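[Meeting: bench + compute handoff]

Bench side (C.D.) handed over the final construct sequence. Compute side (W.E.) agreed to return the predicted structure before the next meeting so the bench team could plan truncations. Sequence as handed over:
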Amino acid sequence: MAVYEGARPRSTLLPRRRLETPLLRPQAPAPPRRRSRVALRSRRRPRFFGIAIGLIVVAFLLSFFSLVQTVRVSASGYDMDQLNQRYGQLLNERQQDLSDVNRLNRESAIRRGAISEGLSQLPPPVVIPAR
C-alpha cells in the first residue's frame, strides 16, 4: 500500500495547485503523526456541505425576491383594475347627472316644480289703454 505524505483532498471549486519541485525547496523531515489529528480530521464535515448550504440559501433568496416582485406586479395590476372600474362608475354618474340637468332645464319641468312648491301661474296681463 502506498502512502502519500502531505496529501490533501481536492477542492471542487479552486483549480489544482502545482506541486513544488523538491529541488527548489528543501524538504524537512516529517514529524511523527499523532492519532489526535486523524480523529479531528474524521470529525470535519466536507467542504461540499458548506457550499451546498450556501447554494440553497442563495436559491431561496432569489426565489423569495422573485415572489416579492410577482406579488408587487399583481397588486399593481389589481389597483389599476380598481381605478379603471371607479373611473367608469364616475363617467356613468356624470352622464346621469348631465341628463338630469338637461331634463330639469326644460320649461315644463320648471312649471311643474313651481306648481309643486305652491306657486301659481300669473294671471293674464292687464292692458292699459293709451291716452
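W.E. noted at the follow-up: The mean pLDDT is 78. C.D. will use this when planning the next construct.
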